[in-house]
Amino acid sequence: MSQDTGGRERVVHPIEEESFRRLRARVDTSYLAPLTRAVVERVIHSAADPAYLTDLVCDEPTLAAAHGALHAGAPVVADVEMVAAGITRRTAVCRLKEAVSGPGLTRSAHAVRLAYEQVGPGAIWVVGCAPTALEELLLLDAAPALVIGLPVGFVGAVESKAALRESGLPAVSNISEKGGSAVAAAALNALLYHPYHPYHPPQFAKENV
To answer: Is 110 considered catalytic here?
Structure first.
């Protein structure tokens, strides 16, 4: 079992347990830091693609900060409904239905603008479909807690993910054209499922005066 963001026990199906056992038999992830391992394994699991082990770009301190923000209630934004549907135990904001395209502006980019107007800074953004959504997010002063940038495609996907890494924003990305809604949602779910233990600094008694 693992704990979800609401503190409830998440029951892991035997098929999922066996799937991860086989994954670990084929791919050595034991050397990875805990949150990085959780993200990498769940992405590999979602795509049945061990090549994500070397394709994903993660940073453990970044994931730790985002993990804390997520479990403290940071809003989650998805670029498309398929990403939102794949995120479990948390409702994601997706404004694509209300968005409209215009000169030099795709619907996905407009949806990012609408979502930012709704959630403001400090959100976790999950982009798995549209490179233009990721490009638009980089133009905003969104101050995200994390950007999971895993859009898929032969046009703009590699470039948008490279721009994300170069931006210095806290991020999860990958190097190749691969990606998609399932893997982006999986990366977010890995952080949701990973146990969270908030740090409470020790209390010291005041000295007698």
So the answer is: no
| pTM (two decimals) | 0.88
Residue 60 has pLDDT above 90, yes or no: yes
Assess contact for 38 and 193: CB atoms under 8 A: yes
Do 74 and 177 form a contact (C-beta atoms < 8 A)? no
User: Which amino acid type is present at position 119?
Assistant: V
**Residue 204 predicted with pLDDT over 70:** no
Q: Which of 13, 45, 194, 197 is catalytic?
A: 45
163 CB burial (10 A radius; 0-12, 13-18, 19+):
middle
Non-local (6+) Cβ contacts of 141 within 8 A are 121
Whose CA is closest to 122, among 85, 165, 72?
A: 72
Max CA separation in the chain (angstroms): 71
Any idea which residue has 């940071």 for tokens?
74
Ranges of beta strands (E only) in the chain are 2-3, 9-10, 56-57, 76-78, 124-127, 146-149, 171-174
- The pLDDT tens digits of the residues spanning 95-140 come to 999 999 999 899 999 999 999 999 999 999 999 999 999 999 999 9
| H/E element, 43 | helix 34-47
Q: Which amino acid is at 108?
A: S
- Count CB-CB contacts under 10 A for residue 120: 11
In single-letter form, the type of residue at position 180 comes to G
